[in-house]
Amino acid sequence: MDLHAASTLIDWRLRVADIYARVRADDDPERAHAVWRTGRDELFRTHDQSPLPAHDPLRETGLPVWPYDPRWRIEAVVEPLPEGDGPDEERGLDTGDDGSLTLRRIGRAELPDGEGLDVWRMHQYAGGLFVPLKDGTSGTTTYGAGRYLLDTAKGSWLGGGTAPDGRATIVLDLNFAYHPSCRYDDRWRCPLASPGNTIASSVEAGERLGTQG
């Protein structure tokens, strides 16, 4: 990667982080979602690091996203892994221009209806958290390999806290689920959803395939 490409990649990450900072600053989730959509559309349309090909029609129409649905905003309790189950489970991944990435599974976020998603910690990027999602829409109305809910190395933290019993919680607003860059450009090598990040429910929220909504 040459200096220009490296500097534009840094700028991309800073701009993504700024979008999420503005999202967190707004106490109205639906309004914050509109900020997120507008910001992502602008980046994908104009930035040198956009994964969209130069003449992709999505540069003009914007990325297709379902309308905001407050039912998909969840403050999920993160269940620690049972002793001896998974703290040392690691995944080493080649992420293309981003280099390599090692993930360690550290817990499981509880969702309604008894489902859950593994929470991963990145060894790189100062230990960011990563939560991908594959659901019942994957391969039909969303990208078959899944979407991302959290990638805090890119700034996509929506908040968290502590449950009454002392366990940690994280905000998983599935309206902010987005397709990884490899959905648009195969030069990217994206960490994808493992079985522990696959649920049966169809999450008709967040970014989708098709036309703008």
Residue stretches low in confidence (pLDDT < 50, at least 5 long) are: none
What gross morphology would you assign?
Answer: globular
* Rg (CA only): 17 Å
Helix count equals: 3
Q: N-to-C SSE series?
A: HHHEEEEEEEE
Strand content: 15-25%
| Total discrete domains | 1
The beta-strand count equals 8
Determine the N-to-C terminus distance: 36 Å
Structural class based on helices, strands and sheet pairing: alpha+beta
What is the percent of helical residues? Answer: 10-25%
Short description:
This protein has 213 residues and is an alpha+beta fold. The protein has helices at residues 3-25, 29-46, 58-61; strands at 73-80, 90-94, 100-110, 116-122, 129-133, 147-151, 160-162, 168-173.
Structure, explained:
It is a single chain. This protein has 213 residues and is an alpha+beta fold. The chain is built from three helices and eight strands; from the N terminus they run H-H-H-E-E-E-E-E-E-E-E. The radius of gyration is 17 Å and the shape is globular.
